[in-house]
Specification:
Length: 391
């Protein structure tokens, strides 16, 4: 077993198990369990998610919530008991660390396999509780809480699946003041930009509304359920570009084939595998113009104001699209809030295939900064005027 030593600069008291700043991994020479720092544990959890996406092997995140027990006078003794219990009730290959510094201990139980997950969690819970009872008193046991979180989690939104389990994604939450400041800047840009756009474009809103109303029956706005960050559903707004009550099955079947990479989808209608249907018979005459110029997207500034979307980010999918996603595709709706425009629109739009669009969304999430948002916003008018890939 590989043993990682503490950095030489560590202070003498950093050996205390309550010190969450060290970066121990695995077990010490005497076989005792050592905890990773919270920062390192978040990185390891992120890597384990990506490994699971490729291998399709499930893992379980177990969280031991000790709360105020660890802050009490004998907190170090309590933590020692928890560590001894986890050492005897989990595998050597499992990953242990601070989920929340000094409050919550996390364990990543890797490669669960194809076994019934309910049975696995029940057996793990019984084993851990028995070990804790051997190391802690009844009063301490009554304070401790244990929770389990399975990855990949069920995101079958069209069939009643639940939202993404945010506990599996602590690395996506801003951890320091700089990250929180960047999020605040992004939200400020969203609110300011949306308000300015809605005020300046209000005459255009009126003109489009009149054109839609006088050229086809039905409402001016098209409202549709879309999936936001972490699987949260919201009402997505667009100017109606299709005939009222058009059958969505055409798009539903097309998207399922496209995401699965079926060749017949890539060849049909000379689409070349693009994300949108060309020559869609459901689209009205004025709707084709609105789509070509992306003017049908303007009502989404209201979604941005409500905080459901951002000016820049991945396009929000329809629930039946998410149902057809591969596991790694889900990251596009988990790692960042959906937006009106993004890298897909300015670099590829509907000319590129679905997997390439997802990779662009993931690249944006990984490299995001307020300055990148500004650059994408400045490039968006040029992409709209070119009209390439707009249908």
């Amino acid at each position: 077993m590989l043993t990682l030593k503490r950095p030489r600069k560590a202070k003498p008291d950093s050996r205390s198990p309550l010190n969450p700043s060290h970066g121990y991994v695995g077990r010490a020479k005497d076989g005792s369990l050592m905890l990773m720092s919270a920062e390192l544990f978040r990185k390891v959890l992120s890597l384990e998610r990506k490994r699971s996406e490729r291998s399709r092997q499930r893992f379980v995140l177990m969280l031991v919530h000790a709360g105020e027990l660890l802050r009490a006078e004998r907190g170090e003794t309590v933590l020692g008991g928890i560590i001894r219990a986890l050492s005897t009730s989990t595998r050597e290959t499992d990953l242990h660390g601070w989920y929340h510094n000094g409050l919550v201990v996390g364990v990543v139980c890797t490669e669960i396999g194809a076994a019934d997950i309910t049975s696995v969690l029940s057996a793990l819970h019984s084993k851990v509780c028995a070990a804790l009872r051997s190391n802690l008193n009844l009063q301490q046991m009554n304070v401790i809480q244990i929770s389990f979180h399975v990855f990949p989690d069920d995101l079958n939104l069209q069939s009643g699946g639940h939202l993404a389990d945010i506990s599996l994604y602590p690395d996506l939450q801003p951890q320091d003041s700089a990250a929180k400041a960047s999020r605040l800047i992004k939200r400020t840009i969203d609110v300011t930009g949306s308000l300015i756009a809605l005020i300046l474009l209000s005459p255009l809103f009126c003109a489009i509304a009149v054109a839609i109303k006088f050229t086809s029956k039905g409402p001016i706005l098209f409202k549709q359920v879309r999936v936001g960050q972490y699987g949260v559903k919201f009402t997505f707004l667009k100017f109606r570009s299709m005939y009222f009550q058009s059958n969505p099955k055409i798009h539903q079947d097309y998207v399922r084939r496209l995401i699965s990479g079926k060749e017949d989808c890539q060849r049909s209608d000379n689409n070349g595998g693009v994300y949108k249907i060309q020559n869609d018979p459901r689209v009205t005459a004025i709707g084709r113009l609105l789509r070509k110029t992306s003017l049908d997207e303007l009502p989404q500034f209201f979604n941005v104001l409500k905080g459901e979307m951002s000016l820049v980010g991945p396009r929000p999918p329809i629930p039946y699209e998410v149902d057809a996603y591969e596991i790694w595709h889900r990251r596009r709706i988990l790692e960042v809030k959906p937006g009106i425009t993004g890298l897909w629109q300015v670099e590829g739009r509907s000319r590129i295939k679905f997997d390439e669009m997802v990779r662009l969304d993931l690249r944006y999430a990984q490299t995001w900064s307020p300055w990148l948002d500004i650059k994408i916003l400045l490039r968006t008018p040029q992409a709209v005027l070119r009209g390439n890939g707009a249908y």
